[in-house]
Protein: Ketoreductase domain-containing protein
Amino acid sequence: MFRALQIVLRGKNGAAAALPLPGIANHCSYSTGSTSQRLAGKVAVITGGASGIGKATAEEFVRNGAKVVLADVQDDLGRALAADLGHESATYTRCDVTDEAQVAAAVDLAVSRHGKLDIMFNNAGVAGALARARLVDLELADFDAVMAVNTRGVMAGVKHAARVMAPRRAGSIICTASVAGVLGSVAPHPYSVSKAAVVGLVRAVAGEMARSGVRVNAISPNYIATPLVMRLLAEWYPEESAEGHRRIVEAGINEMAGVVLAPEDVARAALYLASDEARYVNGHNLVVDGGFTVGKVPNMPAVPAE
Structure:
């Protein structure tokens, strides 16, 4: 029934497991990343900055010398993170990315507070309905809601970052996409389409922005065992334990031996794209997936029994 919407993996115990939504993170901890001040003097806005990949990136940016504006709708988390990072380095503002005026206001806050905007990380995103639905059962209202945040919200961020960056002829705009936008049938349709559109958006505008000295790139993370993903797996596979759900992500889906993808890994990818080290990287989709999207297990007939 749901075969078109999932890839089935077999673990050591032979149990089948479907993939959770990639590129969504809702938990992170401090990393032991670089302290080389690679963003010294730079100013960043991070949408969805109160948790997950956004939080990990805010921590990484501040550790590397940037001042950040955390734009989110999770007020308590956002304010707490700003306090933890230090009010000289971080500011929280409420921002629903489906409202263009609020996105514009977050950008304007960065400029009014710090005099400029160097980095715009369009990271806010939603999963949509947790239930897996066949194409013929797709609720277009859910599709519209996911697109409003994951694609239209990103476009609003790109637009208003460009508004203040282009006159200065400098800046880095980064957009969170997903492996679901690269490889089909690994997530529900609204999420996959929204993330594929983000990659298309980056490619559409990168050439124009290059002529103003502004770079626009995407990051496509693989699956991370975050609280949201764990809730998805709990709904899809209630017979499995929490530890079983974690093994699905960290062992069954993971491509890299000895390494499990964490929000901090995505934050370091964003750090690179934000830094002057990536000064000639533009229109690129940096896939952080350990090789997940470069191959597929052949759908071959079973080997005949002897």
User: Anything to note?
Assistant: Confidence is low (pLDDT under 50) at residues 1-19, 26-34. The CA atoms of residues 37 and 64 lie 4 Å apart. Helices lie at 52-63, 75-85, 100-114, 140-165, 189-210, 227-236, 242-253, 263-274.
